[in-house]
């Protein structure tokens, strides 16, 4: 082998090394680890949200006088028909009732939904405050007309499960006006919420209050009632020299919400974030300072009370008193009882449980429905979070996706399937199931948020592509130029040489042929 | 027809049930949602029985006002050279709480009255039983002013100092709580306490020990108590730290002596210190506990300077007639030899602090108390409205809601109460030069006639690599040896980026003597990203703490130090990358050419050059051009011929 061929081989092998080993290695070693997220699955979940969910709520029918062997089937048919009547596009989540016959001893009216059919003079229904029973009154006429199943179905869907009917089926609501008002009222749901109760006075004179007994009497039952889905921690405090800037409203006899929201200075109460819980509900009982004298607007109502309470969206309640506290005041149990009981009522609104005063017909049914809503909300929230995560990583190609994020995402999807299984299973449906699903859905939200807010991703400690180029160019530039100019040069040489050879060979062929001919 | 009757029946039934259960679920039947947007008005039940009772029964006025555990004192002490020490002291106590209380139980409520709301939850979440926080800045001139207030127990070194007794099942758990505690306090006091991590944290052995009187309760029998401490020497103390301090008080700076606390005046001083101490105190038999908190704000102001600042906020030279010239020397409109500062003093504290005391704090058992500690040649009066009062012991109770002021006057301000002399003077300095090693020299001076026993605590950052073997003693007394001074040493060596060097030495300083202890250290290089944004400023080394145990309990701190480490040029890494890459590229190019290019003899090269060199090409080009020109010359002749 001549040296020139050897040298050409060397040039070729350098170029090959560069392309086949160097480039892939460089690429491999400088790429950022991006865990493969199940993006398509998440996107499909996001576009068709809740499509794989079908809530089934078991309802048991009993009749105290007549025996209707097939009434549950009839009610089931009517109920299904009623639910189907809603426009499919408007529907948020699929849900249905499973109407079953009542079995003595197995079913408890406290834990399960029971429809009791009672013979009466006219048609009607009642939902007792405690328990989950729906009592449907019927008369003989309705039995003859076969109206009873329809009544029962309507009673169930439009009254007992009104909350689901409005929230899941998006049925047209009777009070659409109030809805927009209350939509922004509720604090965002969290399994742990802090309640902060403050007595504020504009003066410095010491105040005592009988808060503990009032709370134990009026707030403890609420805490117990709601304990299945929200845990409260409560603290109380007295603040002096703080009247929330009310002194600027002294001479107004009536005020609009606008005046008040512009005047009230809640910053000092909101800024102190000393509790562990993420969300809080506040109650501020404000007394103006003695210098301010009485606030005329605070007793504009027809009763003789001297205070007025205002709901502040996503914050809590402000109770404004007309008169300043007397010197060395003692706020009695009587006063606090009325304030705290009103506040207890407002807690339902601040949680999003009720939207208007008449909503609380039967709190147990309401709370159960609310749990279902939270589960669905949580599922929606977590899927949105995951979808945002996928979107973000798609947009920022230079962002690394750590393995933990992938694990969290997979874990979240697994939990989601568990919840969906729980919700879809018609065999289940008792309190236990809903509580378990709620617990899982709260966990799901946490896992999703942990995935989204992973430290490595949030910190944005990733280098842009330009940095990579800037750092490597001083080394790669000269090497590339040297290797490839030599490579292309020798390639050119080889090509021209082979061309020359070819033409020479042609000429040679002719001459040899001629010589051969001559020889012949 | 069906639906109508339906609803009416429903409403009727509902109303009956609602009334039955009204006391548990107060429902408002008359809903009128007139106000629709931001604030929704709700109304109390119209037919509530409480409304029939006159409102006066709801809000009573007590004959004896309720008395909370809150107390506030202001101590004013003139110091030599026209300085004034103002010491604001607040004491408060929380409501009692059970030891193993679960906040989530539906019957458990935590109540706060005068004790600040945020402190309790922070203490309980982190299982902290004792909390001590110090914000100190400035120089206390112990030569002139004598002992630090409260024997130095309430002031820290320059910057922030934090130590706490934390209960935990293990040291790791306690450490976790400690980090949480630091982060919470950081948010509460708007300070960068969150920069406390394991590399700044020590577990003191014989310093900072709680006194025997405070029996620290243990809430869980299986866990133990850990004393943890850290300091941040480079923390500037500013108004944003004072505001949260004042917010912790029930009077919120609006009444009582706290109304004097104004950041602009408090920090316009030679030395100031903010301190908080929280203790958990439990009853032995009942299992009920409460927190007690001491909050001190102390400041030393130079009276003439502060008064001048109050008169002329923008500094301007005095007019000629206001100058105090020495009349024994020549003086006219153009020259003036100033007299030494006047010894006649006459001022109101409202001028020093910018405000008057806005009445008393009425919350405590005792009213706000102001005391001036002066010798008999001073005249101290309290001014209420236009009236001036004096008392025998120069202590005044602020009783009314009128603005109060304190008036000081004397003919000889040099005559002040002689404060006790410091039992020991400690100073510390860096020695040596260069960027790779240095030394640390601590000087102890015992002015008294008694030997002083102390624990000398030093916490040094890991990037100071200490050579304990180089410890040397310098003293005038040649008989003194290291062993006779250093009785015992506790040493926990540093671990890079994990924990600091922790040194605690028990020392005995002989009477009337001065001695110095010094040792050497190496400065280590930090990683590129570990340098702070202002790397050339240097690194602050926290103060050393001398806890004197005998003859009296006293705490003295040295000043903090500024250590220079070798600081890189921060564009260097990129330069290095480019330079090395270029060199490597050059080397590669040469090598590559050597092995890929053909070697020729000179003759061969000449032959090739003869055909391919630029010169040959030029010659060829010349030939072509000449050929073209010749062709052009011949052509017209041919045309002419044909014509």
TrEMBL record, chain A:
Primary localization class, coarse: endoplasmic reticulum
Any Pfam family matching the protein: PIG-S
Compartments (UniProt record): Endoplasmic reticulum membrane
Membrane topology: Multi-pass membrane protein
UniProt entry tagged with the keyword Ribonucleoprotein: no
PANTHER family for the chain: GPI TRANSAMIDASE COMPONENT PIG-S
Protein name: WGS project CCBQ000000000 data, contig 00105
Gene source species: Kluyveromyces dobzhanskii CBS 2104
From TrEMBL, chain B:
Any Gene Ontology biological process: attachment of GPI anchor to protein
Domain of life (superkingdom): Eukaryota
Extent of the signal sequence: 1-18
TM region positions: 572-595
Cross-referenced InterPro entries: PIG-T (IPR007245)
One GO cellular component, as annotated: GPI-anchor transamidase complex
Keywords: Membrane, Signal, Transmembrane, Transmembrane helix
Matches recorded under Pfam families: Gpi16
The UniProt record lists the keyword Transmembrane helix: yes
Keyword Lipid biosynthesis: no
Name of the protein: WGS project CCBQ000000000 data, contig 00107
């Amino acid at each position: 082998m001549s040296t020139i061929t050897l040298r050409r081989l060397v040039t070729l092998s350098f170029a090959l090394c560069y392309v086949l080993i160097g480039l892939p290695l460089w690429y491999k070693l400088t790429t950022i680890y991006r865990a493969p997220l199940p993006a398509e699955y998440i996107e499909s979940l996001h576009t068709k949200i809740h499509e794989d969910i079908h809530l089934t709520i078991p309802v048991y029918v009993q009749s105290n006088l007549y025996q209707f062997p097939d009434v549950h089937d009839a009610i089931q048919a009517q109920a299904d028909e009623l639910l189907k009547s809603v426009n499919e596009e408007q529907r948020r989540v699929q849900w249905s009732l499973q109407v079953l016959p009542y079995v003595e001893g197995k079913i408890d009216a406290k834990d399960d939904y029971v429809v009791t059919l009672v013979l009466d003079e006219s048609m009607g229904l009642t939902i007792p405050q405690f328990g989950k029973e729906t009592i449907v009154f019927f008369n003989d006429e309705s039995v003859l007309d076969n109206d009873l199943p329809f009544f029962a179905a309507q009673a169930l869907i439009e009254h007992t499960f009104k909350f689901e009917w409005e929230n899941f089926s998006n049925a047209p609501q009777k009070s659409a006006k109030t809805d927009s008002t209350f939509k922004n009222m509720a604090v965002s749901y969290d399994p742990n919420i802090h309640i902060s109760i403050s007595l504020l006075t504009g003066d410095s004179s010491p105040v005592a209050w009988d808060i503990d007994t009032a709370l134990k009497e009026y707030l403890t039952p609420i805490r117990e009632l709601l304990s299945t889905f929200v845990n409260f921690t409560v603290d109380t405090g007295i603040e002096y020299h703080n009247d929330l800037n009310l002194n600027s409203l002294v001479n107004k006899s009536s005020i609009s919400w606008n005046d008040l929201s512009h005047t009230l200075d809640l910053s000092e109460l909101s800024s102190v974030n000393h509790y562990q819980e993420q969300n809080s509900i506040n109650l501020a009982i404000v007394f103006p300072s003695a210098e301010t004298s009485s606030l005329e607007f605070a007793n504009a109502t027809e009763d003789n009370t001297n205070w007025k309470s205002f709901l502040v969206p996503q914050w809590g309640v402000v109770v404004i008193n007309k008169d300043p506290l007397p010197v060395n005041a003692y706020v009695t149990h009587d006063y606090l009882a009325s304030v705290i009981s009103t506040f207890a009522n407002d807690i339902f609104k601040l949680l999003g449980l009720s939207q208007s005063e008449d909503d609380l017909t039967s709190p147990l049914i309401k709370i159960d429905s609310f749990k279902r809503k939270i589960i669905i909300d949580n599922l929606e929230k977590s899927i949105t979070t995951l979808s945002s995560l996928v979107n973000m990583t798609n947009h920022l190609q230079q962002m690394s996706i750590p393995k933990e994020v992938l694990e969290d995402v997979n874990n979240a999807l697994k939990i989601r399937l568990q919840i969906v299984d729980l919700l879809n299973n018609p065999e289940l449906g008792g309190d236990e199931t809903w509580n378990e699903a709620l617990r899982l859905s709260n966990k799901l939200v946490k896992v999703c948020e942990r995935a989204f807010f992973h430290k490595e991703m949030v910190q944005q400690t990733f280098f842009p592509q330009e940095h990579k180029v800037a750092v490597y160019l001083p080394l790669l530039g000269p090497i590339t130029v040297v290797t490839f100019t030599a490579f292309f040069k020798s390639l050119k040489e080889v090509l021209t040489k082979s061309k020359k050879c070819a033409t020479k060979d042609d000429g040679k062929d002719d001459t040899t042929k001629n010589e051969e001919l001559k020889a012949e | 027809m069906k639906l109508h009757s339906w609803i009416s029946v429903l409403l009727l039934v509902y109303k009956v049930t609602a009334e039955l259960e009204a006391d548990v679920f107060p429902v408002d039947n008359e809903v009128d949602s007139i106000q629709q947007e931001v604030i929704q008005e709700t109304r109390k039940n119209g037919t509530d029985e409480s409304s029939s009772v006159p409102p006066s029964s709801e809000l009573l006025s007590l004959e004896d006002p309720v008395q909370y555990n809150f107390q506030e004192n202001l101590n004013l002490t003139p110091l030599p050279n026209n300085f004034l020490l103002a010491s604001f002291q607040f004491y408060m106590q929380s409501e009692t709480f059970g030891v193993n209380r679960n906040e989530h139980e539906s019957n458990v409520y935590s109540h706060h009255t005068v004790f600040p709301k945020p402190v309790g939850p922070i203490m309980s979440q982190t299982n902290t039983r004792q909390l001590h926080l110090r914000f100190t800045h400035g120089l206390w001139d112990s030569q002139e002013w004598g002992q630090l207030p409260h024997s130095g127990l309430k002031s820290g070194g320059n910057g922030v100092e934090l130590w706490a007794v934390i209960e935990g099942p293990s040291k790791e758990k306690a450490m976790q709580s400690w980090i949480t505690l630091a982060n919470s306090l950081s948010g509460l006091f708007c300070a960068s306490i969150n920069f406390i991590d394991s590399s700044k944290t020590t577990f003191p052995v014989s310093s900072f020990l709680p006194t025997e009187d405070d029996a620290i309760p243990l809430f869980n029998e299986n866990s133990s108590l850990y004393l943890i401490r850290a300091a941040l020497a480079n923390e500037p103390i500013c108004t944003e730290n004072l505001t949260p301090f004042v917010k912790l008080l029930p009077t919120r700076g609006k009444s009582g002596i706290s109304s004097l606390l104004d950041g602009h005046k408090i920090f316009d001083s030679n030395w100031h210190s903010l301190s908080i101490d929280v203790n958990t105190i439990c009853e032995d038999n009942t299992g009920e506990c409460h927190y007690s908190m001491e909050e001190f704000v102390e400041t030393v102001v130079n009276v003439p300077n502060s008064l001048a600042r109050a008169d002329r906020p923008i500094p301007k030279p005095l007019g000629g007639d206001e100058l105090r010239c020495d009349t024994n020397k020549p003086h006219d409109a153009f020259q003036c030899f100033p007299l030494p500062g006047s010894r006649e003093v006459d001022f109101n504290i409202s001028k020093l602090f910018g405000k008057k005391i806005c009445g008393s704090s009425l919350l405590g058992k005792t009213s706000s108390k102001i005391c001036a500690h002066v010798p008999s040649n001073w005249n101290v009066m309290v001014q209420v409205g236009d009236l001036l009062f004096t008392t025998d012991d120069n202590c005044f109770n602020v009783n009314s809601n009128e603005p109060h002021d304190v008036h000081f006057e004397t003919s000889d301000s040099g005559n002040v109460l002689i404060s006790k002399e410091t039992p020991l003077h400690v100073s510390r300095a860096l020695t040596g030069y260069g960027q790779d090693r240095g030394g640390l020299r601590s000087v102890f001076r015992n002015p008294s006639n008694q030997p002083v026993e102390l624990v000398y605590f030093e916490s040094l950052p890991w990037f100071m690599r200490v050579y304990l073997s180089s410890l040397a003693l310098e003293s005038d007394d040649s008989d003194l040896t290291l062993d006779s001074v250093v009785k015992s040493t506790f040493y926990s060596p540093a671990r890079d980026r994990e924990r600091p060097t922790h040194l605690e030495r028990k020392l005995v300083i002989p009477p009337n003597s001065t001695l110095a202890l010094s040792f050497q250290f190496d400065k280590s290089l930090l990683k590129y990203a570990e340098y702070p944004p202002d790397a050339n400023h240097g690194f602050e080394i926290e103060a050393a703490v001398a806890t004197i145990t005998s003859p009296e309990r006293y705490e003295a701190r040295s000043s903090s130090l500024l250590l220079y480490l070798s600081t890189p040029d921060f564009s260097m890494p990129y330069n290095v990358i480019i330079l090395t890459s270029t060199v490597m590229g050059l080397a590669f190019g040469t090598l590559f050419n050597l092995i890929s290019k053909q070697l020729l003899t000179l003759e061969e090269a000449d032959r090739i050059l003869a055909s391919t060199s630029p010169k040959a090409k030029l010659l060829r080009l010349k030939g072509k051009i000449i050929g073209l020109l010749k062709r052009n010359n011949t052509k017209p002749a041919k045309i002419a011929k044909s014509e």
